[in-house]
Write a structure and sequence with these properties.
CATH class of the largest domain: Mainly Alpha
Mean pLDDT: 95
Structural class: mainly alpha
Number of domains: 2
Helix content: 55-70%
CATH architecture of the largest domain: Orthogonal Bundle
Radius of gyration: 15 Å
Strand content: under 5%
CATH topology of the largest domain: 434 Repressor (Amino-terminal Domain)
Number of strands: 0
Largest sheet: none
Shape: globular
Number of helices: 10
CATH superfamily of the largest domain: lambda repressor-like DNA-binding domains
Distance between the termini: 18 Å
Length: 151
């Protein structure tokens, strides 16, 4: 996660941390920890922040320098995400166990993501995107563009 992007986006709008935190419904201390890189931002909150700043998540987390204006629903369709995760795993030619080993997690965690029991955690999502070049915005159903735009 590129915490500097979060700071830059806030400062670009001339906002205080307190205001952003209030607007998205979190404590100022939580938002401050996000900016300082001391606390991971949940996938749901990444979506909300991207909507708030009117940017793509790939840009927000530093996977892309291409800033795109994407507005999506605050709700993430977990079924859609699970389908796309299966597609990515199969395109990488990994079994659930192999993918779990690659990302230092368990097969049951991968199974829970792919069977829509849990929404994928943002650190895993970011690492999967880095490894596969699939766009986080595409994975979460925010964009039709499947691949990370680098420029």
């Amino acid at each position: 996660m590129d915490n500097k992007r979060l700071i830059d986006l806030r400062e670009e709008k001339d906002l205080l941390k307190k205001q952003v935190a209030k607007d998205i419904g979190v404590a100022e201390s939580v938002y401050s920890q996000w900016e300082n890189g001391k606390l991971s931002i949940s996938t749901k909150r990444l979506n909300e922040l991207a909507n708030y700043f009117k940017v793509n998540i790939d840009y927000l987390v530093g996977l892309s320098d291409m800033r795109q204006r994407i507005k999506s629903s605050d709700d993430i369709n977990i079924q859609l995400v699970s389908t796309k995760l299966k597609e990515i795993r199969k395109s990488l030619k990994f079994t659930m166990r192999e993918l779990a080993n690659k990302f230092n997690t368990t097969s049951s965690t991968i199974s829970n993501y792919e069977n829509a029991k849990f929404l994928i955690l943002s650190p895993f999502l970011i690492e999967l995107s880095k490894c596969s070049n699939y766009s986080i915005d595409w994975i979460l159903g925010r964009s039709e563009h499947k691949w990370i735009s680098r420029k």
